[in-house]
Input
Amino acid sequence: MNALQAEWLKLKNASILWVSFIAFGLAPVMGAVFILIMRDPEALANAGALSLKIEAMGIKPDWNAYLGILTQAIGVGGVLIFGFVASWVFGREYTDGTAKDLLSLPSSRTRILNAKFIIYVFWSLALVISNLLTGLILGWLLQLPMMETEQIIKQLTLYFNTTFLTIIIGTPIAFFALRGRGYLAPLGFVALTLVVAQIIAATGYGAYFPWAVPGLFSGISPEYRESINEVSYAIVFFTGITGYLATIIYWKYTDQQ
Output
């Protein structure tokens, strides 16, 4: 608890916390704009390739489509934003020059890292809940037609399951933050995984690349979503566990000189 309280104080007084909420909060705003375009036939006709995609997917300006957009924002944009969160939580000690001071505290290295992982998870969850609340407010202002309870439950389940998948694959970023002693290595790793995920997903093998699974699961590529199976989930969880253990083992036994 002491380690967790220390991490919370660092986060609470950091301006980057509110920057992350603003950056991630663009998703429901852009989703609302997207809905407005779909409602306006003239604007939709001028949307070019966007209008063709909307017609092909049969998207309608309703809650089902709006919540789907928010979910897809997590599956793709969440990899970037959650990766940035993990990079900051685990890399800031080296950037600020406080890593050695942290190691001198009367808390084990494992407890310190566990506190950081807890902050990472709750920060990420706070971001998606904030987006959902913002989306509900904007959807109410747009007066979107109501959905059946069964559809709402289905969309919210998809929303939070995509969140958990995206959070899980963020653990290896912690390892790169410690190994690279700062922000650059983990952020470079995040950028690399995003690029590779797009390429592999386009080839039809995204279900076997962990950083592509959340995006496919969210419905960003409906034609590939059916390719996700038990092996895909196993790969995601294996990646998350491996990232966590690698982070703990590295920081516990490495020379911090």
